[in-house]
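User: Okay, second chain of the day. Same drill as before: sequence in, C-alpha cells out.
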Amino acid sequence: MVKTAKAIAVTVQEMVTKSTTNPDELGILANQLTNDYGQLAQVAKPSVLTAENEEIGSHIKRQVQQLGHGCAALVTKAGALQCSPSDAYTKKELIESARKVSEKVSHVLAALQAGNRGTQACITAASAISGVIADLDTTIMFATAGTLNWENSETFADHR
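Assistant: Same drill. C-alpha cells below.
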C-alpha cells in the first residue's frame, strides 16, 4: 500500500511537470493516477478491517477517501488544462490541486504508520531475536572449533 501511495506522489509530480512542458500527456498521467488510486483503495480495505482499533481503521478510511477526492479534482484540472493549455490560471489550479494531493498522500502514509505500530513492534522484536540467534550460532561455532574451551580437559562437545 505504501508503494502505491508513493506511485501516486510520483505521478502527481509528473503531472505538474507536464502541465508546463507537454499538457497533451496529462490524460495518460490522469489515467495512471486513477488506476493507482483504485489499487490503493482496494489494498486499504484490509488495512481498515485489521487496524488495532476502530478509530484507527476509521482514520485510515477517511484519509484514503480524502485522497480520492483530491485525485478526482486533480484529474478534472488536468482535463481543463488539456482544453486550454496556455491558460495560466488553469495551470495554477492544477499545481495547487497537485500540492493538495501530495499532502493527502502523506496523510495516508501517516495513518497507515499509526495503524501498523503493533506490526512494526513485532518486526522489531523478530529482528532482535534473529540477532540473538545469530550470536548464539556464532558462539556455538567457536565453541565447537575449540577456541572457547576451558583451560582444563573439558570440551564443548562434552557439555553439548
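Residues 54-83 form the longest helix (30 residues).

User: Thanks, on to the next one.
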